[in-house]
Structure prediction request, 677 residues.
Amino acid sequence: MNTRNNPLLEPFDLAPFSAVKNEDFFPAFVELIAQTKSEINTIANTSAAPTFENTVEALEFCGEQLDRVSSLFFNLNSAETNPEIQKIAQEVSPLLSELSNDITLNNDLFLRIKSVYNVRDTLGLNAEQKTLLEKKYKGFSRNGANLSDAQKDVLRAIDKELSAVALKFGENVLAETNAFEMLLTNAEDVKGLPEGEKEAAAALAKQKGKEGWMITLAYPSYLPFMKYADNRELRKRLAIAAGSQCFKADAFNNEELVLKIAQLRFKRANVLGYATHAHFVLEERMAGSPEKVNAFLNDLLEKAKPFAANEFKQLETFAKDLDAIDRLEKWDAAYYSEKLKSKLFNLDDEKLKPYFKLENVIAGAFAVAKQLFGLEFKMVNTIDVYHSDVKTYEVYNQEQKLVSVFYADFHPREGKRNGAWMTPFKSQKIQQGVNDRPHISNVCNFTKPTASKPSLLTFGEVTTLFHEFGHGLHGMLANTTYPSLSGTSVYCDFVELPSQVLENWCYEKECLDLFAFHYETGEVLPIEYVQKIKESASFLEGMATVRQISLGLLDMSWHGVDPTAITGIKAHEINVLEKTRFYPDVAENCSSATFSHIFAGGYSSGYYSYKWAEVLDADAFEYFKETGIFNRTTGASFAENVLSKGGTEHPMLLYKRFRGAEPKAEALLKRSGLLMR
Prediction:
């Protein structure tokens, strides 16, 4: 295999996107996996007595080039994929799974780590070193180091199959999203859509060589149609298309993959000595156990459901009075919610969007980071990118020292999956006295500019941008010694705190005044709109809360039980979601078939963490409001005790250092309007 002149095998700081060809990836992975195995064997087989430095630290810093190439490749597979990249992903994922097993099942290496772990209290380690040692030891003991050789072989086979199946699940979802197009040629069919949305739909049709208006399942196309289109039958068609993705009798059906993933994870947990996959996962989370998660979700459901029931009844009555709708269906939800919101608050996204030009919102997020944390973002055009949509920035602190490089990729395209996420292209670390700063990427899917309008965001998209930017700041402000403890490398039920807390600023006039200007007139967002945004913040919050709880319960129903008796994913889903359902079930639809967070992403047994982190973020923002939302002392404390510390200590310790106490759920219930008056 010829690996000469492969840019992925050369040392690099900034990712060399333009120099890399697809065919470079597979040989690079093969070579770097081999190099990493060699490094591991050197650590495991050295004759020197095991120490923290020659074993634990050495393991932490090996395979860095492989980690960097992996982060670049798998972000491309989400943000700019094609069949060639997907094929490479299928080939590479089992190799990476095998390497992971080769490391965690290496008995000589484990014995060296265990030797250091057994005398940990005599080594004079600092808090971060203790955390790293414990994490490495548990990484082995929790993943099979104590198993027999026969059990290790079983674990290897499971992990190899799991990596391939989970990857296929995600590929099927993307393929189904890209496959659907609804071309409308009658002006009556787009009645109700705002002019900007019509223009975007016409531009998309033209881009595909067609006349009319093109609607797809990409969020910037799908959501406005569901919210504004008057044609109920077309909304139904679109909703069923979205809900039936990967649940049809075609090549992209995910039903068997869902069952296989759940069963393989359960089998894996059993091999490791755990009752279920959730027991395995939650042992290393703030929640601690499936029982605590289920209790948390059900307690929240008990508080939220009466509010949700009243909201649904209000929405049902409104739709009946307005359009004689006898029974609300799922394809009516966004449409009548928007109309009711407009009636109650005289406010809708179309009134707000002119004030939320994408470039201004980005500048606003940067301004918040400057006021809270002293950061300055400077756009640079010399940093290599993987697509022309991507904008790049250098981030500096008050001393004009480079803090991070920041990549922003904000528009949908065919090779990009729906949703929004943050990725570190390079993790922060301190090695040999050098603080190596991180490279962080935010990816979203916001409407592209049209011939007559810039990219204008809905208020929900504004909060999405701030959310992902919060994750980004968690990565950018990282200041730890070890990369595996840096930035967002924290418990998944803590990782959403920095992202969700930043959303709160979007509701404050003091913040909105920084960026909410009319894109044509320059007029500041009127104070009555700001007040209405705050007033409407808890609009239908009961139903939204129950929706999130339902997804958390669905996740636990796949991972907190023995799934081997489940034969049909639809029947299972109906049973689990009965107590959270308000809208009639749609026979063609099945959420599990496209639940990428838990079947293709890192949130299995962890979807509850969004609500868990809401308790943290509401409590944290209460503190900001008490001291001033741009109070630099409070901002510095949040940066020092939360953002910079990554996973170096238990998250509750970090939170209490910032807040002075454990979080109280009352702040969330108050913010959501779910406290009984």
About this structure: The CA atoms of residues 468 and 499 lie 6 Å apart.
